[in-house]
Amino acid sequence: MKNIRNFSIIAHIDHGKSTLADRLIEETGLLPKEEKEKHQQILDNLEIERERGITIKSQSVRLEYILDGQKYILNLIDTPGHVDFSYEVSRALAACEGALLVVDATQGVEAQTLTNFHLAFDSNLEIIPVINKIDLQNAEVEKVSKELQEELGFIKDDIISVSAKKGINIDLLCKKIVEKIPAPTGDVNAPLKALIFDAIYNNYKGVIVHIRVFEGSIKPQDEIIFLGNKKSFIVDEVGYLKLKYTPSEALYAGEVGYFTATIKEISDARIGDTVTLKNNPCNNALPGYKDVKQYVFSSIYPLDTTQFENLAIALEKLKLTDPALKYEKDNSQALGFGFRCGFLGMLHLEVVQERLLTEFGMEVILTSPSVKYRFKLAGIDEIIEINKPADFPDLTQIEKSYEPYIIAEIITPEEFVGNCIKLCEDSRGNQIGMDYLGAKRVMLKYEMPMSEILFDFYNKLKSISKGYASLDYEFEGYKETKLAKLEILVAKEKVDAFSMIVYEPKAAYIGRSIVEKLKDIIPRQQFAVALQAAIGAKVVARETISPYRKDVLAKCYGGDITRKRKLLEKQKEGKKRMKRFGEVEIPQDAFIKVLKAEEVE
Q1: Average pLDDT, the chain
Q2: Which tops the pLDDT comparison, 338 or 110?
């Protein structure tokens, strides 16, 4: 056990975490260095991860490193970098004794760097600071080193400067991992106690559970039990996580590996749960386990309504690899049958949409993302929760309404502070802190409604700060607020797909922007079409699509004015009748354009 090192790599998004993992895999001889160009983002298995350069699922790999004639086992547990997946990061860190904190030499310390640093610090991990991308022309190694010393309290001699792309100083980093990160502890003879930090579905083996063993051992034919849901299984295979699953005789305390046990449902192996032996269980579960909560909700409909069955199959398959996705059947008069889905956040929503397209060829329409709201109704003691406009209670019954709030941390260069403050205040933010990080950078802390960051907040933040500001947030709780259900009527007919729950004082503004957009999208008819945004019976915004008009006077070359008037009156009557019986066809692209989250301001 003294020659094992379990560590994680943590960083802000796009600071070179996956590339550094590639170089460590090469340095320890698991892949030949000569073929460096062939291996990029080895631990990122999903197409979208490679395309966008982000890590979505934690991965793990066992490396063998020789130092001074001694063989060491380095278990690298890669973590996602985005705020949506912070629970997964916390569980991956719980499986380690140390962490590499990677900071981009051109960007410096950013919002998620701080959050991940605090997660690792609170888990009592040994943290090795690493400055990456030192080969770039605009790298400011000294400046970033100073930031790490002043803001996070590191000692200068502990900071290692590397280039993951060029492979500079990777050997030094491996030595530092062996020297600085403590070996795991645990009693091999105690009852089994292991932490699940990931689970993957395999078509042939069922669910493959990735674990870190803290005490005892696990081997084939053991009967294990998950303490979270009390389900038990017989172990088929255990082994190590090299680049391929490598079976072994057993896994012992301090080791990281996997096991299979004919587990059919990925939801049975929950991340953060504790695994122990059924007949000889450990005394208590490992701390920190909680159910994953969905914060963002949206309905998904197939672009082609005949594809509903295929969408159902695609979501079922997606759920096998993504246990955080929750969905149930839903239907809409305008869009037909679909599914109401729950996501961890906006990035998770985009990932699911993109995976449906790339992996299953499913083109879908998503309704406006919303959060989970709470209501206290007259005559009912308990508080009800809703996440879709169709369930919005009767206005006369509502005593109090509540919406979820977050604490947002924004790190920005000093010159963009004014822009960031204005954006936060426009988003109903309430400033609760402002700290200077070094001479030129500021950290703003705001309390704001979660619904405000769903619509384009991140893109706006990047544009007003020329890409330099970074955002991180955590869920705070529910606060009382004024909510209303905004409905869109086309020719006096409610279109349920456009309904949304909004902050009441902003309802008129949002309604106006939607009807203005619809006016440009819906084709003109033979009669005038009224577009209205309404809260209950009160119309808060209106636009009219003017009709086509046939020139009925074209055949009159002159003659009596009364004849012309008679023709115009006849046309007027016809239009009235047409308006009474006419129905407006809303084109499919209208839904896509209006429901695109980025375009609703």
Answers
A1: 81
A2: 338
State how far the Cα of 357 lies from the Cα of 367, in Å rounded to an integer.
17
CB 263 within 8 A of CB 233: yes
Both tokens of 189, joined, read 């003879």
Note the pLDDT of residue 431: 92
Buried b (16+ CB within 10 A) or exposed e, 244-264: ebeeeebbbbbbbbbbbbebe
CB 362 within 8 A of CB 338: no
Determine how β-strand 223-226 pairs with β-strand 296-302: unpaired
**Which domains occur in the chain, in start order?**
4-180 (3.40.50.300), 193-277 (2.40.30.10), 296-366 (3.30.70.870), 389-481 (3.30.70.240), 485-594 (3.30.70.2570)
* Contact assessment for residue 590 and residue 531, using Cβ atoms and an 8 Å cutoff: no
DSSP 322: -
The model's pTM: 0.73
Helix axes 308-321, 346-360, angle to 10 degrees: 120
Length of the chain equals 601
Portion of the chain with pLDDT greater than 70, in percent? 87
Burial (CB count <10 Å: 0-12, 13-18, 19+), residue 562? exposed
> What is the full DSSP assignment across 151-166?
HH---GGG-EE-BTTT
User: Concatenated DSSP letters for 29-92?
Assistant: TSS-GGGGGG-SSTT--SHHHHHHT---S-EEEEEEEEETTEEEEEEEEE---SGGGHHHHHHH
E strand spans, 367-429: 373-377, 384-386, 398-413
Residue among 385, 392, 363, 391 at smallest CA distance from 300: 363
Rounded mean pLDDT of 80-109? 80
User: Are the CB atoms for 21 and 102 separated by under 8 Å?
Assistant: no
Residue 601 in this model has a pLDDT that exceeds 50: no
Radius of gyration over alpha carbons of the chain, in Å?
A: 29
Give tens-digit pLDDT for 457-501.
Answer: 877 888 888 777 878 788 888 999 998 888 888 888 888 778 888
pLDDT at 36 over 60: no
Nearest to 207 by CA among 163, 146, 254, 273: 273
Torsion sign over Cα 112, 114, 116, 122:
negative
> Strand (E) positions, 261-316?
274-277, 296-302
Query: C-alpha 508: how far from its chain's center?
Result: 29
Euclidean distance between CA atoms 463 and 157, whole angstroms: 37
